[in-house]
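Anyone else keep sequences and structure tokens together like this?

Example one:
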Amino acid sequence: MTDISNELIATAAQNNVIREKNLASYEKLVEKSNYIYWRNEFWNLVDQYNCVTSKPVNTIIGFDAHSTDQMIKRMDYVKLIK
């Protein structure tokens, strides 16, 4: 899994593909859902890659909110993942 993740990260960086930190997935991690797609291990690899390269992976934060309540709730998560 690590090798595949590193290949994905390097390819994204080389081709200017932006990676998304999706807050709906992060919320499932925090709430200990059975459907966790957020992997801290992956984002740690991205951080490690960005520390040793001249062409880092660009990331955005995606709210994936379908209501005002979800958006407000996920604003708190933004602070946790920065």
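And example two:
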Amino acid sequence: MGKFIYEGTVRADFEDRLLAHLQIVVGNKLRRGEPFYFQWKDDVSTGGGRTSVWLHPRSNIVFKFHGGRPPALNRSWLEALMTMANSPAGLYVVPEPPEDAGASDSFG
């Protein structure tokens, strides 16, 4: 289980595979200077509810992975997450779609 840390105080746990996909989407948006909301459902063990943060190019963001090996990326999932990030509601986690044939990449 990896961690997404925003401004040193907001923390959320995500599986490493999902976190790697989020890192790519967030990095691409911020590299282009495109601020957006990122929201997720909080685990009931931390009180439940929902958290939403405003990501902008000057945000202090940490992607802390549990494992040492980068997971393979699913281009279809990256595209689905980017579509969400470009929507008025902002980025939120959507289920991983099946990969298109030959669409998987190694991260790194």
